[in-house]
Amino acid sequence: MLMPNLNYAQLKDSYLFAHISKRIASYLKEHPGTRLLRMGIGDVSLPLCDEVIRALHSAVEDQAHAETFHGYMPECGAPFLREAIADHYGKRKIQLSPDEVFVSSGASDELGDILDLFESRSVVQVLEPAYPAYVDANTMAGRTILHLNSGEDNGFLPEPDESVRPDLIYLCSPNNPTGAVFNRDQLQRWIDYANAIGAVLLFDAAYEAFIEDPTCPRSIFELSGARTCAIEICSLSKTAGFTGTRLGYTVIPRELNRYGMNLNQMWVRNRTTKTNGVSYIIQKGASAVFTERGQQQIQANLSYYKENAGILMKALDELGIRYYGGKNAPYIWLRCPGNKTSWDFFEELLENIQVIGTPGAGFGACGEGYFRLSSFASRDDTQEASKRLLAYFSGQTSGAK
């Protein structure tokens, strides 16, 4: 008899965002034609910038001619894109070799795939609240998971727990969902801890482009000791609007070794076995992101989302609702008014003002009582959501940010 992976029985009934989608579909069936303001899932609303579109069109044309046609691409990424990414880091005074950069179909895919490098007996630590895929991917693999909870007392930025010795540690900065960002000293403590116990840090930097504070690193490789303990996973989804185009990249330093094995070379072997590379067209589009013109254009889009965050924060400030994030991050993490549960607050907003957010309980037990709003919606929807929040909650809330 074929034996299924019994670890799937340990998963929750449905993935957080799938559950939200089902609830929204049910609501729309009961209230057809209702305009919902979707401030929950972090999908972008602006189109790809002109420089990327130009590169995509040019790459499509390349595929129409025998002399410029490309079939299978190198499994670890096209040299032109790996070099462009390494040069981009170099401009920030982080020295990488192109062969330390691996092109992927997106950070979400890579966060799951990278676990192939580590045996199922590895102990994983997840700092919560956290992106739920961290837990789910390791549950599927049968790993032991340690939950390190955070809260308002530490600004949702916990320090290492010296009493435990995990093998893998997930860090996300800016954090999804809380918007909290590690400063240099805080992140250095995690690097020193990982090197001391031989752990590997899986550093999710999907939102690094939103960081403006110079005291907060955009890459873990800005700090001493990271090259011997960290893997950085990045995405163009939020940085450049590639949510539907799908491209990310992973940095694995050549110095990263465990038990006499080199993780960079292990990942080369993994990719050349399990993938046929990302399409030429998409990689050419991605390479345009790292040009001078491309960087100028994506910064304009990022500014748009930051302004959206400012609109939401202004409304919450007026209402006296306590929140975190919004600055240096695209997410706002608010405490549910009236000590409501996360899902009760979700239902309240859906039923009364048709604003969709994400219940904090879906990001771990310590997310209960909190709620995530995204700044990635259109300007019109963001402004309308702010108006509806102000109209509905005025006079109901109290407290300071």
Describe, in plain words, how this protein is organized in 3D.
It is a single chain. With 401 residues, this protein is α/β, with parallel strands linked by helices. It has 12 helices and 15 strands. It folds into 2 domains: 12-41 and 294-393, Aspartate Aminotransferase, domain 1 (Alpha-Beta Complex); 50-291, Type I PLP-dependent aspartate aminotransferase-like (Major domain) (Aspartate Aminotransferase, domain 2, 3-Layer(aba) Sandwich), CATH 3.40.640. The strands form 4 sheets. A 7-stranded mixed beta sheet has the order 2-8-7-6-5-3-4, with helices on both faces. It has a 4-stranded antiparallel beta sheet with strand order 11-12-15-14. Strands 1-13 form a two-stranded parallel sheet. Helix 2 runs antiparallel to helix 9 and helix 10 packs parallel to helix 12.
Key structural traits:
401 residues, Aspartate Aminotransferase, domain 1, seven-stranded mixed beta sheet, four-stranded antiparallel beta sheet, 12 helices, 15 strands
Brief sketch in words of this structure:
With 401 residues, the chain is an alpha/beta fold. Helix content is 38%, strand content 15%.
| Helix content percent band | 25-40%
How many E strands? 15
Strand content: 5-15%
Give unreliable regions as ranges: 397-401
CATH architecture of the largest domain: 3-Layer(aba) Sandwich
Kindly name the structural category.
Answer: alpha/beta
> Which of globular, elongated, flat, extended, rod-shaped describes the shape?
globular
Q: What topology, given as strand order, has the largest sheet? A: 2-8-7-6-5-3-4
DSSP summary: helix tally: 12
